[in-house]
Amino acid sequence: MIRIGFSEDIHRLEDTSSKPLILGGVKIPFEKGLIAHSDGDCLFHALAEALLGSLALGDLGTFFPDTDPKYESYDSELILIDVLNMVKARNYRINNVDINIVLEKPKLKDYILKIRTNVSRVLNLPLERVSIKAQTNEKLDSLGENKAVKATAIVLIESED
Question: What does the CA dihedral 120, 38, 71, 4 come to, rounded to 10 degrees?
Fold first, then answer.
């Protein structure tokens, strides 16, 4: 059986944040940081939630509530690993992932391969099955005004049976 999951996640960017800008587990040098309960890695959040959605298990808040102090400043890679284990426990494997990042600044072209490589490592997928794209929002709304970053993820999983 083949299943598809989709999700998106958005986090505010602020000059005064003590948290860095992290996307796909890669720290991106920038004067603004993410505002979030966890480390704010919206790419890993969108990917993990898309995997949950592909299995009709609900959203991230169901398993990793922002009201739980355990998840304060939590490494989002660990969230993704926990969700990946849920996928495996149900006898599914990931075929491929496609992720889009919307961010006005900084430009991500120098980081895309590093992010892809890291996502590939975490998911144990060949690099050619991990697509990461970046775009701006043409200076429109909070994304275009560089007040937020958003990631959108779609995944295809297949039953191993």
Answer: -40
Domains contained in the chain, CATH given: 2-159 (3.30.1330.50)
103 CB-side CA count, 13 A = 30
Contacts of 141 (CB under 8 A, 6+ apart): none
How many residues are listed for the chain in this entry? 161
Query: How much of the chain, in percent, has pLDDT values that exceed 90?
Result: 73
Q: Are the beta carbons of 151 and 101 closer than 8 angstroms? A: yes
Q: What CA–CA distance (Å, rounded) separates 143 from 42?
A: 13
Q: Is a pLDDT exceeding 90 seen at residue 111? A: yes
The whole-model pTM stands at 0.94
